[in-house]
Amino acid sequence: QVQLVESGGGLVQAGGSLRLSCANSDRTFSTYAMGWFRQAPGKEREFVAAITWSGSSLGTEDSVKGRFTISRDNAKNTAYLQMNSLKPEDTGVYYCAAALGSQPPSFRQVGAYDYWGQGTQVTVSS
Fold it and tell me: Which end of the chain is less crowded, N or C, counting CB atoms within 10 A of the terminal residue's CB?
């Protein structure tokens, strides 16, 4: 059973940084592609970034390119989202997700992922 637990969210001023972590105790973690999504109040969940099982980036949403970096450490069964130069519009609940297979073709879509974490709140003040 894949269980994903996010951490690292919080309140930060605009221009600040946060690093989100997504931990999973399942031994097969290294066989999953991982993604990060976010959801602002009243809006649909949107894609942020995704990474293959081996650590290659699959893609990053345009509004966070150059500011956010996805990575993973398979030895620690953990994926990360480093967020720099945060803006108030980055505020929302951030979710990590796992997809069976290395490179899901629809990695930008919510439906491509098989498992989800409970989410961690990120609030960026202006």
Answer: N
Q: Where are the beta strands (DSSP E) in the chain?
A: 4-7, 10-13, 18-24, 32-39, 46-51, 57-60, 68-73, 78-83, 92-100, 115-116, 120-125
Q: What are phi and psi of 79, to 5 degrees?
A: -110, 155
18-24 vs 78-83, strand pairing mode: antiparallel
Quote the distance between the C-alpha of residue 14 and its chain's center.
20
Residue 101 in this model has a pLDDT that exceeds 90: no
Read off the pLDDT of residues 23-81 as tens digits, 9 standing for 90 and up: 997 878 888 999 999 999 999 999 999 999 999 999 999 999 999 999 999 999 999 99
CA angle, residues 13, 110, 103, in degrees to nearest 5: 100
- So what's the pLDDT on residue 26? 80
CA distance 21 to 38: 14
Confidence at 103, pLDDT banded by 50, 70, 90? confident
| 21, 6 Cβ separation under 8 angstroms | yes
